[in-house]
Amino acid sequence: MGKKIAVFSTAWNGEHIGGILKGMQQKAKETGNDLYIFNTYGGFEEEKAFNDCEYRIFHLALQSEFDGMLILSNNIASYNRIESLMQQIRSRDIPCISLEQDVPDFHFIGTNNYAAMSELVEHLITVHDCRTLNFVGGFCDHIENKERKKAFIDVLTGHAIPVEPDRIRDYCFSRESGEQAFRDFHERGIAIPDAVVCANDDMAIGYIRMAEQFGYKVPDDLIVTGFDNLSQAYCNIPSISSVGRSKENLGRQAVEQLLGMMEGREYPHAVYVRSAFHPNLSCGCDRGIELFEKVQKQKSDMEYDNIGIRWRINVMQKQLLACRDEREFCSVLEGERIRFSFSRLCIMIDEEEYSAHYLDEPAAGGMKCYPPQMRLMFQENTEPGSEPVMIRTSRLVPDAYLQDGEDSHVFVFLPMHLHGRNFGYCILQDCMDYIVNGNLFYWISELNAAIEHIKQNACIRKLNKKLAHMYMHDPLTDLYNRFAIKNVGEPLLVKNRREGRRTIFLFADLDGLKSINDLYGHETGDVAIRAAAGVLKQSCPDSTYLCIRYGGDEFLLLGTYREDGDADRLKREIEDRVAAYNARHELPVLLGMSVGVVIADPAEEARSIDYYINKSDTMMYQIKREKKHCL
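The structure corresponding to this sequence follows.
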């Protein structure tokens, strides 16, 4: 039985994080162990509500048991989140390694950012004779940014090059940051030094693009460098001089060391994985036309693949949004699973969150736990059943996933949420390439939108059904109201006439309602109205009869007149039920009703429904007058 390892990952930098995860996956499979990757797309620039929903997936990991944990902590968008996570892990007393950020009380594996940046800046000064250098940093409190900035300052100081504060600025690791840095330096007249050292590749690309818009060329007018040596950097024109981090090796080494720690082996607190500076065209170092052609071919292939993937995601979106209900959604999703080559795809639903009305305010954010049990909405190769399947959340995956005879399993968990409503999580296998190329974010975003759309459609259908009921029903008695005459009464009359059947119209009026209201109050009057409604509804011969509250104290029964004598039997049934009600003494007065009956015969001249209603009403008042005359 292999070990169970949890990985906490934030993959907004897909190529770098994806490379580390690939290395972890390789080592886990080689050693026969299981990897549970809890992946988020929470970022430093995202809104808090979005990040709260994304990072909830970390709590899913904390609701289960693991033999060890790996944390890609440098990409977690808040030191408070890191500290909160670490605090809960400390109490478990299991081996844990932090990658790329040194955290107190935990082992560390990562890149020596200081040494790598020092090598890069040394190259600029000693090889290219740079004497004025700008630094474009990421988030000022980010550990990697601090280390790279310190190396930049220390190397300049070591070469007796003045460190000018105006030439050092911090931003947020994005291409837009690089563009903004150029504009900020340009306003100060210092945008074109000998070299601009950027804390990552994205900012270097942004800086170069903005410089080109102002008519400058790299490296002819200035040198620009990056850090990470991602494909977008070495495929850029000019290809960017950068520091390459050994991503897959870092992931492999992390798993290997964690397994060793589980066996009781000792390791130093910090282990650094080798990185290398790759001089390239952006600093004026020519790496050869063959390499240039190779990387351009890689860039072309990558862009072509991404266009195809985005097109498939767009098709999936259209097909899922067209689904009318959950069953149809699951059927379409199975086809999409095959199209995207996921060997496993499972969706677990937090029923309380999912069942909440979509117009209600979402629950307050934060690191909220998942419920003890969750509903299995979708599992590959499985038809949705009539009864919901509930799975214990602490088990994380369906039992079948661990009983397939495989020695090693790698599961990726993604939070499912939209507009602050966190309604579950998704489990995937064989999705690593989509993490690396960044398309898993777009895929899960469309899946979230489609599930929310299905939920909204269900809520709208429920609301429409409720509104339709309210439109045609009386709130006091829950009988049909006058609006129902046109919608259900008239069709019944037309149908009976077409099929040669007679229709009975029974008009009833509650006797003495005004006196009841005057003497005992309207609440007692309402009781009398409900009692009359109950008598009439119970007196209907079958469920095809329509019982309508026509007005304040007036009622109408419509039904198919099946044989002679039905009208007399119906009136006697009403009289008997009124007598039975009065025998219970539930009202301070006796309940009484006057009834008029008309039969619509298809052999006679066709008349409107209003004609028969008015005629039965006239008959009822004639009966009422006769009653008063007798009294």
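The chain has a mean pLDDT of 91.
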